Amino acid sequence: MYCAHSAPTLTPTRNCWEPLRDHLLDVAERAACFASLFGLDDEARLAGLLHDLGKYSDLFTLRLEGKASGLDHWSAGARAVLDQLKAIAGPVALAIQGHHIGLQSAVALQDLQKTFRPRPKELQLTHPDAAVLLARLEADGISLPGLQTPLYDRRRGLAAAMLDVRMLFSSLVDADCLETEAHFKRGCDGLKVHRPAAPKLRAGEALAALDAHLAHLAKTSRAASTVNALRADLLESCREAGALKPGLFTLSAPTGAGKTLAMLAFALRHAAENELRRIVLAVPFLSIIEQTVRVYRELLAPVFGDDYLLEHHSLAGTRGTEQDGQDEADLAARRRAENWDAPLIVTTSVQLLESLFANRPSACRKLHRLAGSVILLDEVQTLPPNLAVPTLAGLSQLAHRYGASIVFATATQPAFEHLDEYVRPLAASGWQPKEIVPVHLNLFDRARRTRVLWQADTPRSWDSLAEELAGVGSALCIVNLKKHALELANRLQQRGVPGLFHLSTNLCPAHRELVLAAVRQRLDERLPCILISTQCVEAGVDVDFPLVLRALGPLDAIAQAAGRCNRNGLMPEQGEVRVFLPEDARYPPGGYEAAAQVTRALLRQRGSEAMDLQSPKLFNEYYQKLYDLTGIATGERGRTKDLLGSIALLDFEETARLYRLIDQDAINVVVPWDSAAFRELRDDLRKSGRPTRRWLRRARPHAVNLYRPKPLDPLWAYLDPASSIPKEDRREDWFLLLDEKLYDREMLGLTGAPEVWIA
Q1: 14: which of 181, 212, 437, 695 is 20 to 30 A away, CA to CA?
Q2: pLDDT tier at 325 (50, 70, 90 boundaries)?
Q3: Is the full-model pTM beyond 0.85?
Q4: What single string gives the DSSP state of each residue in 184-247?
């Protein structure tokens, strides 16, 4: 695997560090090429020329000979920029200083200018005088470009300014990595061998392939004519809107309207019309990614090849090292994931948004690829309210300065435009998106396929719910916690209810897929089918029940649940959604409980007759009340206040620490859903000693995702680390379940173990 600390440098000859000079020139030109798309080529070229200035030293030559260690070779270039350019040098100096240790802060830069000390302080500067090193660089025939204006202007907002620094940083880091990689992959002729360029987007051809696929779907659809007409109108709206100029957009469409392919149609036409270079789709749940990637690959891979789509998330197997397997296609995919060098990228909201606020080189390396791209954020209602304002500011700047188009897609559009006054101090471009779907189409009114009964006045026991479900034939019941789903499923199992299924993230993906296939088959054959599920069934899962019961929770979650009822509009009458209040009123951690409280308050204030799930006005009021209740969207308290404070201080390290979509770290546990596959995976690990990318790809369908237990948690006794590391090392991401009896293959999945598994 590439190691930045191995950047090419040789011992000086006749006062000339020729290999180092060549490397600096190559990095500078590549970084300038990346940054030219957004007008920062001079800054990037300067950063490239000075990023390894500290290597123009005798001490660093000793390091190459193995006679010195613990050296800081990055601070010299940052100090030289500060000395040369004074007030306008900050962003370039930050990029240079951070290309190994990560972006620091304005305060750290001031300290560097005052005292010129190494960072981290345990290291040693390669030379105490940056001017001496700069003279050696200039003697080597390198002339530095001048800068006339500062990269950022505080009047544009500090979140916008920080993104500007990250984009420059991204260009430098990626150029440095690529040139170093090429240096160590020289051909027989001694020349550098660069990795091949990614395929082009070829948006027009991809749109033609999509249109043909959509025409086939329309002919073979089993949905009602009214549903097909609604889907056709959404698709046409997306096609027409694709001709608009780049900017900020919302795509508000009811569940079941065909949003996944319609927004791809928008993105492809938009890219073709505006000469945009890639499409990035970010979704919040891995279950949606699996389904979306499958659809996109089947559509586009036969035409454009496997390299056209890059899947990048924690279970995609794109982590690892050069030694993890010998398959060149696997290695190529891992390399492309490092810097998103692909025309179509499917990733998670966590991967995309946390990168926009990151400070580490590995996380920021891909950011420059977002310039001139179409960025689709699906199910955007899942964005934590406490991160809304800085997130909108960062995305606004990405559109305003970097020519990207941002699309927020959901059936329950948050009232983000009401946060515009809070966004503008962070990014002067603000947040005023354009809606893709014309109002006159009335998609939400036309999508009325259910009636909602609000039965949340009196708490319901699990026994009474089980009794109700036992007599309805077919129904979907969605509860708030995995523990609730298990309790209800157990009661129905004791009653011998036919066609009973259970679904939660305690089932591995392969198990969930089999459950959903069996559920769909029974529904198609009009056989009794009762599915007890957590929220994992609500977003992007295509099931169609005549009756849905939903535990009181966030209003957007209830609306998503309703989208699984009479989804295809084939029932002679409307489907029915019953919202109930469980006797155990606990909720998942985070903002979920606050959102449920807002729903309950709205129900009391408005009354059940005014709780219309197809009303955008209701959701507008819901989100405004949620922001007011928490006070975190506007930075009045809590982590948002701390996050906004770190942005105000231009503290990149602290901002990266505080900006987290998911507070708790997670681990992947391979379970014995398929005993033969489980044992084969276990035996392969014993041979290799660590997970390879090929192993991860095979293990992914058999893995359950859990919050990482605390160091002394008894849960560790049930887990075997996938890598051959000491068991007390808790940094491992992958584990095998030690006791096969703890996974119920019949219905319940991972159970019968510590309480944390079923919380």
Answers
A1: 181
A2: very low
A3: yes
A4: TT--TTS---PPPPPPP--HHHHHHHHHHHHHHHHHH--S-HHHHHHHHHHHHHHHHHTTSPSS
